[in-house]
Amino acid sequence: QQPVQSPQAVILREGEDAVINCSSSKALYSVHWYRQKHGEAPVFLMILLKGGEQKGHEKISASFNEKKQQSSLYLTASQLSYSGTYFCGTQSGGSNYKLTFGKGTLLTVNP
Amino acid sequence: DSGVTQTPKHLITATGQRVTLRCSPRSGDLSVYWYQQSLDQGLQFLIQYYNGEERAKGNILERFSAQQFPDLHSELNLSSLELGDSALYFCASSVDSGTGANTGELFFGEGSRLTVL
């Protein structure tokens, strides 16, 4: 089942902060975050695993609330290069290996 | 460059036809994922292979099939094409744990853009 992302789109000025949310109706094993720039392939940002382990980007942080099956991506002091579509992907674990992505959040950072 | 190679980059064909998309994963990656990306649906998971075996299946149509070969490259076959199959098809690879549960980064290829006329 596809996770739900919010907001669908956000416009920022350089230096502003943004939060992108991702929620699932299923218990989660892991949450993955990717960014896709227009005309390019998605690029890995971060993975958060059940139990608290995180691996990812230096300047972008995220949280994972296992009980609520929710994750949030925090973009602080945004830069022009942060513009793109952000996707969260979820994996339920166990015997379910599907990595299912949400519809994405379009982030535009203006000067 | 992610190290994942997809061919062809662009493909234009007619309804009813059949096409094959090819993916070579990064050296050493055992898992291959196929995703379909259309404007309004984001990244739709199609299927995953791990070391030659099908590991997970998403909303893949019966007209579509895939396989992973002993050299770990993968092919996605799309047949009886319809206008709605026009999309960008991504292949991604990763180094998965033995259980197949992904605990690391997916490396995406540049995608194959399919246009069905």
Quaternary organisation:
heterodimer
Unreliable segments of 5+ consecutive residues of chain B: none
Greatest interface: A-B, 26 and 29 residues
Radius of gyration of chain B: 13 Å
Query: What distance lies between the first and last C-alpha atoms of chain A, to the nearest angstrom?
Result: 37 Å
Mean pLDDT of chain B: 91
Structure description:
The complex is a heterodimer of chains A (111) and B (117). Chain A has 111 residues and is mainly beta. Helix content of chain A is 0%, strand content 53%. In chain A, strands 2, 4, 5, 6, 9, 10 and 11 form a seven-stranded mixed beta sheet that branches. Chain A is globular. Chain B is 0% helix and 51% strand. In chain B, strands 2, 4, 5, 6, 9, 10 and 11 form a seven-stranded mixed beta sheet that branches. Chain B has a four-stranded antiparallel beta sheet with strand order 1-3-8-7, with no helix packed on it. The radius of gyration of chain B is 13 Å and the shape is globular. The N and C termini of chain B lie far apart (31 Å).
Features of this protein?
heterodimer, A: 111 residues, mainly beta, seven-stranded mixed sheet, four-stranded antiparallel sheet, 0% helix, B: 117 residues, 51% strand, globular
Secondary-structure blueprint of this entry?
The complex is a heterodimer of chains A (111) and B (117).
Chain A: E1 4-6, E2 9-13, E3 18-23, E4 30-36, E5 43-49, E6 54-56, E7 60-65, E8 70-75, E9 84-91, E10 100-101, E11 105-110
Parallel strand pairs in A: 2-11
Antiparallel strand pairs in A: 1-3, 3-8, 4-5, 4-9, 5-6, 7-8, 9-10, 9-11
Chain B: E1 5-7, E2 10-13, E3 19-24, E4 31-38, E5 42-50, E6 53-57, E7 64-68, E8 74-78, E9 87-94, E10 107-108, E11 112-116
Parallel strand pairs in B: 2-11
Antiparallel strand pairs in B: 1-3, 3-8, 4-5, 4-9, 5-6, 7-8, 9-10, 9-11
